């Protein structure tokens, strides 16, 4: 049997989506992203705390440094940073997917633009980690700069995200009342 690309055309052609979700599933889809991202925000502050301890360890006198090194703040900061990068990317894609599933479009808004920018800043912060491991101070400063931008954007995202959640709750309550 010969392979004909036209036989596969139905697989790649846009198909109408049936996205009638039960109220429970709609709530799960709607609130998974905000809950995940609030958890990520808390974890981001913890990673920041570990990063400050890494910096304190690096700048401490010899005797204090010996004690601080035992706590392995650098390894813990690296592990939390790697985990957060994955959660941020998954949370961003998940939020966009949920929006598309529920509303059949993406809303170009400050929340979307700042969210995508945040992921770019996080990727740039991660870019400098290998250079930091080589002892390059300029890479540390750029890492700190980009992670500060990530945190600032993340805080702005929390404000706009909570406004979106309020709107979704209003829509859901309106649908239940009607």
Please state the structural category: mainly alpha
Helical percentage:
over 70%
User: Low-confidence spans: pLDDT under 50, at least 5 residues?
Assistant: none
Oligomeric state: single chain
H/E topology pattern: HHHHHHH
Number of helices: 7
Nearest-integer average pLDDT: 90
- Supply Rg: 22 Å
- E-strand count: 0
Looking at the structure, what is the overall shape? elongated
Specify the biggest β-sheet. none
For the record, give the distance between the C-alpha atoms at the N and C termini, rounded to a whole number: 56 Å
How much of the residues is beta strand, in percent?
Answer: under 5%
List keywords for this structure.
single chain, 178 residues, mainly alpha, 81% helix, elongated
Would you summarize the structure shown here?
With 178 residues, this protein is mainly alpha-helical.
Structure description:
The chain is mainly alpha-helical and 178 residues long. Helices cover 81% and strands 0% of the residues. It has helices at 9-12, 23-59, 62-69, 73-103, 110-127, 129-133, 137-177. The mean pLDDT is 90.
């Amino acid at each position: 049997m010969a392979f004909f690309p036209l036989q596969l055309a139905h697989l790649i052609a846009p198909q109408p989506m049936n996205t009638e979700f039960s109220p429970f599933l709609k709530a799960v889809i709607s609130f998974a992203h905000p809950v995940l991202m609030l958890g990520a925000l808390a974890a981001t502050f913890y990673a920041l705390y570990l990063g400050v301890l890494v910096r304190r360890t690096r700048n401490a006198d010899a005797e204090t440094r010996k004690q601080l090194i035992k706590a392995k703040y650098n390894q813990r900061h690296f592990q939390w940073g790697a985990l957060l990068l994955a959660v941020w990317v998954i949370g961003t894609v998940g939020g966009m997917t949920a929006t598309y599933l529920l509303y059949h479009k993406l809303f170009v808004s400050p929340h979307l633009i700042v969210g995508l920018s945040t992921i770019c800043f996080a990727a740039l912060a991660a870019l400098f980690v290998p250079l930091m491991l080589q002892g390059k101070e300029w890479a540390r400063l750029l890492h700190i700069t980009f992670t500060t931008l990530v945190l600032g954007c993340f805080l702005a995202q929390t404000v706009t995200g909570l406004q979106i959640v309020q709107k979704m709750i209003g829509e859901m309550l309106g649908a239940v009342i009607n």
